[in-house]
Amino acid sequence: MGWVDSRPRKLDDERTMLYFSPRKPASAxxxxxxxxxxxxxxxxxxxxAGERAVEAAVAxxxxxxxxxxxxLIVPEDLAAAFTEHVDAENNWNQFPPSARRGIxxxxxxxxxxxxxxxxxxxxxxxxxxxxxxxxxTQARRAIAAGSPTVTSEVILERVCPAIGVAPRSxxxxxxxxxxxxx
Length: 182
Known about the structure:
This protein is mostly helical. The protein has three domains: 2-7 and 17-60, no CATH class; 67-132, no CATH class; 135-170, no CATH class. The chain is 51% helix and 5% strand. It has nine helices and four strands; from the N terminus they run E-E-E-E-H-H-H-H-H-H-H-H-H. It has helices at 31-42, 48-60, 67-70, 76-83, 88-94, 97-108, 113-128, 134-144, 150-159, and strands at 2-4, 9-10, 16-17, 20-22. The strands form two sheets. The protein has a two-stranded antiparallel ribbon. Strands 2-3 form a two-stranded antiparallel sheet. The longest helix has 16 residues, at 113-128. It is extended, with a radius of gyration of 20 Å. The protein starts with a strand and ends in a 23-residue tail after the last helix.
């Protein structure tokens, strides 16, 4: 079990190559991946190494960590935080399902309790003003200031589409400043 971590490349006139990296043991399993595993099992195509990866995920909780996220179930701590911020829950419910899913995954995949608490607080605070994500907010502020940094450009190009925010091609972004001569 792993991830495709490259583009197909031509090896010679008859073959191509593709790099797969192994799945990390604590990597969360999404519903589509679990459906693929079931299809492989039914077809008799899952290998012993794949079964061991699934067994490890079941044992360490990675198999089920995203179940409530994919059902868009708001965890109790986030629901409580919504009550502390006017309009947070109402605005949250207006966000597209893909944005809510991404934010919920961001919350549940926090490794430390204090990180999770900070993410819950930030999510409720931003939801109260109709903002979907701290990353999108950071990118918008950089654009409004007229000086996007490399970080904000990366956010625009890679992160924003995943959380339901307009990608770079859909908005006007000034070019990054050249800092190589400084």
